Amino acid sequence: TWSGKGAAACTNCEPGTISTVGSSACTQCPAGSIADRAGLSACTKCPPGSFANKKGSKECTKCPAGYFSSTLNSIECTPSPAGYFINGVGSTSYNPCPVGTWSGLGSNREGTASCTMCPPGSVAEEPGSTRCSLCQVGQYAPSPGSDKCFDCFPGYFTNKTGSSTCTACPPGTRSSIQRATECIQCNLENNLSYRSGMSICDECPEFAPTLTKYKCYDRVNTECSSKDGISKTCRYSVDLNVWSYGVAYADGPGRDFLFYTFSKTVDIKKFLLMAKSNARSSAENLNFRCLPSGKEKHFPTFRRYNNFECANAQAMEVTPKPYHKVIIMELAFFYKE
């Protein structure tokens, strides 16, 4: 209370002010403290989680969401630091943003009441993150709020950072590893090319060539023999085994030959050939003659796939040029059903 000169009684100080014994006037409480009712002789410090930013305050104000005060007598609240948040009022501390989320400080250093989820293609792997990190090439994060990037599965790829999905390898290509950044082109001579997302090339069975991108040529089974079954023999050829072995000599003007008999009459379209020759050049050292039509054509000793159409074929005679030795390592004939 207080009184002026000649007063008959003392007067209570208003809320927000105090007086001591013998006071002739009331004094305002300093910022950070309050007097919440009339007639007080001492100010009360604002507790942690609240503040009073003016002299003569009647009550403490709770810190709003995003702000805190951890000490007594606060005149203002402190914004939560980057990477943290405060989602209630009257807080004395702050909490780290969960994984998959982040927070920063605005241009005016505002506090954060809630954390922001990382967008797809980015992650926050640790609590208290101040930013999201983009997924690296070969990885993706499909959902918002992710804390981990995932590797692309085999058959898929991404060559950009920050991807939310992986892209299926286009038809005719493949990726056989996780975290691929590109797809590898398949050899379309003997691999189909109509399916996407392949981890291996869509190879035709028995090394057959492709008829279309959807279909392979069929292989005709063969049995192999030679003109001279003692020294110049075709070693073996097994049905459903594309590897047909044989040796043919032409030591002089006369020529030895390998004779391939087909398991059925077919319209030959292509054949697969790998062979060695004693010739120094890659000239056309082998002659193919289709029977019974007699159609024939010369080919080099090494060529992966060869076009040689022969209708109603029952057998094929393979003969080297004079003075040549040829070792056939791989030979298979194909037809279109």
Which key features would you list for this structure?
mainly beta; two-stranded antiparallel ribbon; eight-stranded antiparallel sheet; Jelly Rolls; 337 residues
Summarize this structure briefly.
With 337 residues, this protein is mainly beta.
Q: Report the average pLDDT across residues.
A: 85
Q: What is the class of the domain at 218-335 in the CATH system?
A: Mainly Beta
Overall shape: rod-shaped
The CATH superfamily of the domain at 218-335 turns out to be Galactose-binding domain-like
Number of strands: 30
Strand content: 25-35%
Number of H- or I-type helical stretches: 0
State the end-to-end distance: 115 Å
The level of helicity is under 10%
Which structural class fits the helix and strand makeup? Answer: mainly beta
Q: Could you say what the CATH topology of the domain at 218-335 is called?
A: Jelly Rolls
Order of helices and strands: EEEEEEEEEEEEEEEEEEEEEEEEEEEEEE
Query: What composes the largest sheet?
Result: 8 strands, antiparallel
CATH-defined architecture of the domain at 218-335: Sandwich
What is the gyration radius calculated from CA atoms? 45 Å
InterPro entries: Growth_fac_rcpt_cys_sf (IPR009030), Tyr-kin_ephrin_A/B_rcpt-like (IPR011641)
Organism: Macrostomum lignano
Protein name: Ephrin_rec_like domain-containing protein
Domain Tyrosine-protein kinase ephrin type A/B receptor-like: 38-68
